[in-house]
Amino acid sequence: MNTRKDIVIIGSGLTGLTLAYYLTKAGKSVLVIDKNKHIGGVIQTIKKDGFTFEIGPNTGTLSNAETVQLFEDLKNDVTLEIANPQANNRWIWKDNKWNSLPSNPIAFFKTPLFSRKDKLGILSEPFKPKGTNPNETLADMVRRRLGSSFLNYAVNPFISGIYAGNPETLIPKYALPKLYNLEQKYGSFIKGGFKKKKEPKTDLQKKATGKVFSAEGGLSNLVKALVKAIGEENIISEANVNIDYQKPEYVSTIVTPNGSQTISSQRVISTIGGYALSKVFSFISDKNLKPINDTKYAQVCQVIVGYKKWQGIPLNAFGGLNPTIEKRDALGILFTGSLFKGRKSEEGALLSVFMGGVRRPDIFEMTDDELTSIVKKEIRETLKSSENPDLIHINRYKHAIPQYEITSKHRFETIKELEKLYPGLIIAGNIRDGIGMADRIKQAKDIAIQIIENS
User: Fold this and answer.
1) Dihedrals phi, psi of 57, to nearest 5 degrees
2) Which of 261, 318, 378, 399 is exposed most, by the fewest CB atoms within 10 A?
3) Closest listed residue to residue 323, CA positions, set 89, 98, 109, 58
4) What number of H helices and E strands is found in the chain?
5) What count of Cα atoms within 13 Å lies in the side-chain half-sphere of residue 361?
6) Residue 104 φ then ψ, to 5°
7) How is 155-180 classified by DSSP, letter by letter?
8) How far apart are CA 286 and CA 272, in angstroms?
9) Alpha-carbon distances, residue 380 vs 5, 92, 304 (angstroms)
10) What is the CA radius of gyration of the chain?
11) Is the peptide bond before 177 cis (omega within 30 degrees of 0)?
12) Is the pLDDT of residue 255 over 80?
């Protein structure tokens, strides 16, 4: 069967589904193709033994208007849920105990996390000259502007929690462009932060509060709402696809357990990982794809741990992060059961323990028993619970998070070159434009607007 579509989208993760939704809404005929049976990429909510938990992203940050708009557009089928206010409390491990990241000036000067020298030095941050090296690492930037204790006990654990990465190799221009631009545009993080707050905002932008969010009942409900709006008939799962460029069209050959078909389209949009592109785009040489295929990924193990009756310390925070300097085995522990309603029993606890990352690739190779032993030790020593958990669920992500390091510039340039060479091809996904849920939604909305306006 040969069918024609306006646009073929490879990948049914958040980027692909959001893109398909807005294009469908604009009247475009769209087909989404995914190699997996499960739709939604790594997003998946599981209900088991009285617990409701996520594998894949646990939460998002309401950091842009596009994310707010998506939930408002889908409000009849999914409800945005903002995390419990205690999510504003973030713990950092130092000197064998948890310490809250300071949230006000008094707490800042009292915290043991940062040195006295660096606390006083923050007063001179607005007057320091801005950096001149666009390839400066995040670690060098932070040491230059804030001091080593801020790097060790604020930025380092933050990067472990977001990127599972290393601030000594991440490049702010690519990994944290908002932070980089604060210095470049305003000359200072502090001055830039104040001036950004004073900029006029639309009503929608005012709703982008930066708060932690999920969807009521779990993030799978966001996926279900998107699938309903797109139409299940416009999504093919369990499919191997090979795409050929027969100028001026793209021909997608799709093979599923039920047979094969070809789809002709004017446009093809990839939202899959860089490592998988050569398996899909036969018309692009391996040499031309190499800068994208070579994208470095953090390997992460996520262990979900549930207790029907919690007997450890009160979990009145978003979670706790372990700085590298403290030499713990876990990157951090997220208190997911405390953030959103209905995820565990009233007396219970639900935790997500993250391990591995770019600095501990050895952990990814450990057995389930070894991972379980490490997790129990982490919980026993940091959360003071020696009870056996009622639930343990282990997930491994070989290509968890792309690293925005020095090679990113070449990757981004290659993507632009390929899109110019092959009109109608768009290479998207988390290999560019950020890794968070809000980043994925914004990228999808921006691409959809671009296509609609140029049609």
Assistant:
1) -65, 135
2) 261
3) 98
4) 19, 19
5) 7
6) -150, 165
7) IHHHHHHHTS--TTT--HHHH-HHHH
8) 16
9) 55, 17, 15
10) 23
11) no
12) yes
List of residues 6+ apart from 249 with CB closer than 8 A: 264, 265, 266, 424
Angle between helices 189-198 and 177-186 (to 10 degrees): 90
**Among the listed residues 322, 274, 319, 299, the one whose alpha carbon sits nearest the alpha carbon of residue 395:** 299
Distance CA 89, CA 317 (A): 5
- Does the pTM surpass 0.90? The reply is yes
Distance CA 408, CA 412 (A): 6
Parallel, antiparallel or unpaired: strands 349-356 and 297-307: antiparallel
Cβ count near 99 (within 10 Å): 16
Residues found in the chain? 455
- pLDDT, position 282: 92
Q: What value does the mean pLDDT take over residues 420-432?
A: 98
In the chain, how long is the greatest CA-to-CA distance? 71
Q: How far is 410 from 17, CA to CA, in rounded Å?
A: 27
The two structure tokens encoding residue 168? 């000594």
Distances (CA, A) of 17 to 24, 71, 401: 10, 13, 19
Tell me the C-alpha distance between 30 and 24, whole Å: 6
DSSP H or E segment with residue 336: helix 336-339
Q: How far apart are CA 266 and CA 29, in angstroms?
A: 11
- Phi, psi of 361, deg, nearest 5: -65, -20
Q: Give CA–CA dist 304/308, Å, rounded.
A: 13
- CA–CA distances in Å: residue 249 to residues 177, 408, 454: 35, 29, 17
- Residue 222 and residue 250: Cα distance in Å, rounded? 30
- Tell me the C-alpha distance between 410 and 205, whole Å: 32
And the tokens for 272? 């899959």
C-alpha dist (Å) from residue 217 to 14, 41, 87, 259, 293: 17, 18, 18, 35, 36
Instruction: Please report which confidence band the pLDDT of residue 455 belongs to, taking 50, 70 and 90 as the band edges.
Output: confident
Helices marked H in 135-249: 138-145, 148-150, 156-162, 172-175, 177-186, 189-198, 203-206, 220-230
Q: Contact, 295 vs 429, CB < 8 A?
A: no
CB atoms within 10 A of CB 346: 5
* Cross-strand bridge partners of residue 2: 262
